[in-house]
């Protein structure tokens, strides 16, 4: 039984497929909304468990100050643990980076497998007698020779004398005149 692609009939018609696709998309959208609502309620529940709502009515000034101190203390504890966790994460990331560097150093550079190339004797002889390759090999012969000029060297003198001579406007004028 050999059926070509042009003779094969689709299982569902185009309208049926479109209808099923739209139903699937609607179901997926409703599931996403329900999931986001569930996450929102879960987050609210977790926050309410950890931090019960404050009852501020009927408290005196001293009790409010004590409550504020207690909240500040809790915030400090949370900040310390967060800071400690950040340091641990940074230390672990650095350690991971050094270990991956060591691994790559131990592996070394991986060379690819080379394929064998069959060359005939004519190809080998042709490569040796090819004039374009010979011209490339003898590229230094066509270069122009350049004479190097002797660099002008300044005499080494005592820098303290030079500082006194070049100080003030007179020294700047000397430098300007020397530059021209």
From TrEMBL:
GO terms for cellular component: troponin complex. This is Troponin I4b, tandem duplicate 1. It comes from the Eukaryota. Troponin I is the inhibitory subunit of troponin, the thin filament regulatory complex which confers calcium-sensitivity to striated muscle actomyosin ATPase activity. Belongs to the troponin I family. GO terms for biological process: cardiac muscle contraction; skeletal muscle contraction. Keywords: Actin-binding, Muscle protein. One of its GO terms (molecular function) is actin binding. Coiled coil: none annotated. InterPro entries: Troponin, Troponin_I, Troponin_sf.
């Amino acid at each position: 039984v050999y059926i070509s692609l042009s003779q094969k009939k689709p299982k569902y018609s185009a309208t049926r497929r479109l209808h099923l696709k739209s139903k699937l998309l609607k179901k997926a959208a409703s599931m996403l909304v329900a999931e986001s609502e569930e996450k929102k309620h879960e987050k609210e529940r977790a926050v309410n468990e950890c931090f019960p709502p404050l009852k501020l009515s009927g408290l005196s000034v001293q009790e409010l100050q004590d409550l504020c101190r207690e909240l500040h203390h809790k915030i400090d504890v949370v900040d310390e643990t967060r800071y400690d966790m950040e340091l641990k994460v940074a230390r672990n990331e650095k350690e991971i980076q050094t270990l991956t560097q060591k691994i790559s150093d131990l592996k070394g550079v991986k060379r690819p497998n080379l394929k064998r190339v069959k060359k005939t004797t004519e190809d080998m002889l042709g490569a040796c007698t090819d004039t374009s390759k010979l011209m490339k090999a003898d590229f230094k012969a066509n270069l122009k020779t350049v004479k190097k000029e002797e660099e002008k060297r300044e005499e080494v003198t005592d820098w303290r004398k030079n500082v006194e001579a070049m100080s003030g406007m007179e020294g700047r004028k000397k430098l300007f005149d020397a530059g021209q």
